Amino acid sequence: MTVMTNRRTLLGVAGCALLMAACSGSSTSASAPPLRFTAIPDADATELEAKFAPLAAHLSRELGVPVEYLPSDDYTASVEMFKNGDIQLAWFGGLTGVQARQAVDGSQAIAQGRTDELFKSYFIANASTGLERSDDFPTELAEFTFLFGSPSSTSGRLMPEYFILEATGKSAEKFFGTLPTFSGDHKQTALMVARGEADAGALNYVVYDDLVASGEIDPEVCRVIWETPAYVDYNWTVRPEVDTDWPGVSSAKLREVLLAIDDPELLAALRRPEGLIAAENSDYSSIEATAKALGLIR
Predict the structure, then answer these.
(1) Which CATH superfamily is domain 120-227 in?
(2) Residue 242 DSSP SS3
(3) Which residues lie below 8 Å from residue 282, measured CB to CB, with a gap of 6+?
(4) Rounded CA gap, 245 and 224, in Å?
(5) CB 200 within 8 A of CB 144
(6) Where are the alpha helices (DSSP H) in the chain?
(7) Rounded distance, CA 57 to CA 269, Å?
(8) Between 242 and 12, whose confidence is greater?
């Protein structure tokens, strides 16, 4: 009887210990601070919030910690959120990624879309201008009103401005004879040109193609008149404390989880149906050099 009682007691203690360990593990995960991310608002903010909520839920499941999406008001705000530690991860454009990594020592670009190695901008024009598609830069644009997207956009400002300079030898301000006008985001650029509120503009080619596919703009009215040469663009960038402040989470693990995403709904949030590939800071050295040459960063 004594042996049996002791055996039962030991089994009971062992069971309790296992239960306590399991509970302790789940509470650690549940009580971990949320890992927060944002994305540059290159389209309608409400639309982005709806798209990124499922991605946040997916990252939370895969990483074992709470993950939240925080919307940003504009491109500059997304960089400030990263700089201040309000977010630990961001889906940046090429330029905003460079700005964020300059502001936070030890931050890393960890992933990009497969298309981001060879990204491009479209120069578009309202049909009323009479401008047609050309392989050569359309110098006639100097006669028309022109829109950039966000002041900190790679595909909607930085690279279009660089290619204007390369093709004409003039800054955008001198080429157009006026200070740059900004719509705020790629979608607004396309819609304003389509409505005739501006004659022409430059934007992210993926956003334009999506707007045509959805029927929101008519390509016969809002025409592509020139495509830029390729350059590197969007990226996931992470702050260094991800490697220390979240048990079981690291920038390497985060990269692994992002690269494994194959759910079309999650990839659609990024407009990257082809999936993601690894990236590193040095991939964006050309963007940094261009931004410095144009005086957009130091």
Answers:
(1) Periplasmic binding protein-like II (3.40.190.10)
(2) helix
(3) none
(4) 47
(5) yes
(6) 2-31, 45-63, 75-84, 94-103, 159-168, 172-176, 186-194, 205-213, 251-259, 264-269, 285-293
(7) 13
(8) 242
Domain 32-117+233-285 CATH (choose: 3.30.70.100, 1.10.260.40, 3.40.190.10, 3.40.50.80): 3.40.190.10
- Tell me the per-residue pLDDT of 128-178, one tens digit each, with 9 for 90 and over: 999 999 999 999 999 999 999 999 999 999 999 999 999 999 999 999 999
Q: How far is Cα 16 from Cα 7, in angstroms, rounded to an integer? A: 14
The residue extents of the domains of the chain are: 32-117+233-285, 120-227
Q: Could you read off the pLDDT of 45-75 as tens digits, one per residue?
A: 778 889 999 999 999 999 999 999 999 999 9
The vertex-166 CA angle with 164 and 169, nearest 5°, equals 85
- What six digits make up the tokens of 141? 């644009």
